[in-house]
Amino acid sequence: MLSYLHAYHAGNFADVLKHAILVHTLDYLAQKPKPYFYLDTHSGPGLYKLSDSESQKNEEYLNGIAPLWQSKILPPPIARYKQVIQQCNQENNSQNLDYYPGSPWIAANLTREFDRLSFCELHPREIETLTDNFQQDRRIKQFNQDGFQKAITSLPPKERRGLVLIDPPYEVKQDYERVVDVLIASHKRFATGTYAIWYPVVKRQTIQKMLNDIQHSGIRNIQLFELGLQPDTSERGMTSSGMIVINPPWTLWQAMEESLPFLAKQLGGEKGVYKMAQLVTE
Ligand SMILES: C[S@@+](CC[C@H](N)C(=O)[O-])C[C@H]1O[C@@H](n2cnc3c(N)ncnc32)[C@H](O)[C@@H]1O
């Protein structure tokens, strides 16, 4: 089933958490002069115009990037994330918040000329846009293939350094199980890699099972970060979302300590919530 289009959600509070962690991790990897490999298993189109009808439908960016765009004072990791969003708008000839970058745009712009990138996308419309957006960049390979499968066959990378972003839509319930299976298989092939997995909190029970399975997989050095607009509820809809990071940069915990309380308040107001946990130690 391929009905999901990320444009409806571009720049929302879930993207803020995901992309702030992505920016921090890519910056960290770029501190060493050695090349690394970036794999985006579920890429989306890579760039969103916020005036498009899909983004305008629910204006989800109003609970995400928009209030941060207005803020003058931000914790340093969020100021750095905002700088990347500003760069994206400037490169598209805008001084305002007209565009929001997807993970492929962020990765393409924070990697160096000697790094290597692979993007996977199954949706026919999204792969076409993705290809249009990045076909000039010779470091990038795009695959109209299942990203879960591709993760296993792409690893280990020849660089022996790398980041794998796993960001499925969870429209089908098998995604929750496939994340765990693919993570275990990928980690067996490339144990020193960094893995970042995004997840929604719609029903706490469903996500708790996935988190328990990851926690008991035998994989070590796992951190969890969650940000929500309100506490869990039994009503429909996503209230929080999270990121699992395996082999995180050692600086990520402090960056999130500085960022999450601020983001919960700024985006969720009195109801905003966050969580940080070392799920498994090193
Ligand atoms: C949440 S969106 C990705 C957003 C993107 N990572 C970002 O941060 O900007 C998920 C994408 O995965 C695509 N998709 C769904 N199943 C897939 C699969 N098995 N392999 C690759 N892409 C898939 C969807 O078409 C959708 O564009």
Could you give a short description of this structure?
By secondary structure, the chain is α/β, with parallel strands linked by helices.
Commentary on this structure:
The mean pLDDT is 97. Helices cover 41% and strands 19% of the residues. The protein has helices at 13-29, 53-58, 65-70, 76-91, 103-110, 124-134, 147-154, 174-189, 204-215, 252-268; strands at 37-40, 47-49, 99-101, 116-120, 140-143, 162-166, 194-201, 222-228, 240-246, 273-280. It contains ten helices and ten strands. By secondary structure, it is an alpha/beta fold. The strands form two sheets. The protein has an eight-stranded mixed sheet, with helices on both faces. The chain has a two-stranded antiparallel ribbon with strand order 2-3. Helix 7 (147-154) packs parallel to helix 8 (174-189) and helix 8 runs parallel beside helix 9. The chain has one domain: 3-Layer(aba) Sandwich (Rossmann fold). It is globular and about 40 Å long. The structure holds S-adenosylmethionine. S-adenosylmethionine is lined by residues 2, 4, 6, 18, 40, 42-44, 102-103, 120-123, 126, 146-148, 167-169.
What Rg, in angstroms, do the CA atoms define?
Answer: 17 Å
| Hetero ligands | S-adenosylmethionine
What fold name stands as the CATH topology? Rossmann fold
Roughly how much helix do the residues carry, as a percent range? 40-55%
CATH class, named: Alpha Beta
The H/E string reads HEEHHHEHEHEHEHEHEEHE
Q: For the largest beta sheet, what order do the strands appear in spatially? A: 5-4-1-6-7-9-8-10
